[in-house]
Design brief:
repeat, NFKBIL1, 0% strand, Ankyrin_rpt, mainly alpha, extended
Length: 356
């Protein structure tokens, strides 16, 4: 029975059956870090070996370890880089997500003494060679502009995708992703796009015959530069707003789960210190601004969702109800501070209710 289960899982991974794999995860209690074959490959190893980027991201989200090594000492990133050497698109679709999730894997050597960082250097050299490979082929500036817009959108989409993994890796010397840093990077790519020969793409492109191969590309006008800068800023604002909303939803989801565990019928009997209570604010001290931004950042004040959720919070943090459910577990040393904060939260929520 178990061998049949493992065989089915390996088949779904190898054949890139993303939807069926999600259903498989719902049906079975799958350990995503389990060894699946005689080569000691995990599910993430198999997904990376075959270049199945969507499945790899799904596995990472479900807790797949990026530092697991197979019988050859290869990490998933080793296999992803090897696939990217044969398939250029895998660099952005597969390799980058793995790097963002676990930077520590970059310098881990396999049995042959090769690190993912060294394989990445090969990929970089290969991409640069392809970039200059076809000097004679050129496309209309409109097509290049369309490609650039597509790349810009892909960059924004990619950063949104990886936002969920930002807290999973840390490394020294990391540059904060400010607007200036991001815009500067994208601006440099834009200028390279317009001032260097266009490299051959795996995508099918329109070609125009009779074009002089020695024609120089027109210089970018100041007006176009300004338009591009505005576009960058708009895209960045949208990206950060979406990222903020997603983070708010996730934080609130965790908060609600902790509250249910603390207030629910199956609540544990352990003593509660001030720090053990899932307060509805992320700052050190309670304030109207901190409570509002934590609980309602992505909810419009006039919406029914806002009013319903506000009502739930009023009930949850009513001082009498709180004491009824938690009084016996509160540590005496923190009792005064806890009661005071509960009252503050309740007053803030009541004030918000009066305004709505």
């Amino acid at each position: 029975m178990r061998e049949k289960y493992l065989k089915k899982l390996r088949k779904l991974l190898k054949q890139d059956k993303f939807s069926k794999l999600k259903s498989f995860f719902k049906k079975y209690d799958v350990n995503v870090n389990e060894i699946l074959d005689e080569k000691q490959n995990t599910a993430l190893h198999i997904a990376c070996k075959y270049g199945h980027d969507a499945i790899a991201l799904l596995l990472i989200k479900r807790g797949a370890g990026c530092l697991a090594s197979n019988a050859d000492g290869n990490l998933p990133l080793h296999l992803a880089c090897k696939f990217a050497l044969r398939n250029r698109h895998a660099y952005t679709d597969l390799v980058l997500p793995l790097m963002k999730n676990c930077r520590r894997s970059l310098d881990v050597r396999n049995s042959q003494g090769v690190t993912p960082r060294e394989l990445l250097s090969e990929i970089k050299d290969q991409l640069q060679g392809q970039f200059h490979e076809d000097d004679s082929t050129s496309c209309e500036s409109e097509i290049e502009e369309e490609d650039w817009r597509e790349k810009l959108a892909h960059e924004v989409q990619g950063e949104d995708m990886f936002a969920a993994y930002e807290n999973d890796y840390q490394y020294e010397g990391r540059v904060p992703n400010t607007y200036d840093n991001w815009a500067d990077s994208m601006n440099k790519q834009y200028h390279r796009k317009h001032n260097q020969p266009h490299f051959a793409s795996t995508r099918k492109r329109s070609r125009f015959s009779g074009e002089d191969k020695n024609d120089k590309k027109p210089k970018i006008s100041d007006e176009k530069k300004e338009e591009f800068a505005k576009k960058l800023q708009e895209e960045y604002k949208k990206k950060k707003e979406k990222e903020k909303n997603e983070q708010s939803k996730e934080a609130r989801k965790i908060y609600d789960l902790k509250c249910k565990a603390m207030f629910g019928p199956l609540r544990h009997k352990d003593h509660l210190h001030y720090k053990d209570i899932p307060w509805p604010f992320a700052t050190k001290n309670c304030s109207a601004e901190s409570v509002t931004s934590f609980l309602f950042a992505d909810l419009a004040p006039a919406s029914s969702g806002y009013k319903d959720y506000l009502r739930q919070q009023q009930i949850r943090w009513h001082p009498d109800r709180f004491m009824q459910k938690c009084r016996e577990r509160l540590v005496e040393a923190d009792l005064e501070k806890i009661v005071s904060t509960v009252k503050d939260v309740s007053q803030i929520l009541n004030a918000l209710s009066d305004k709505s």
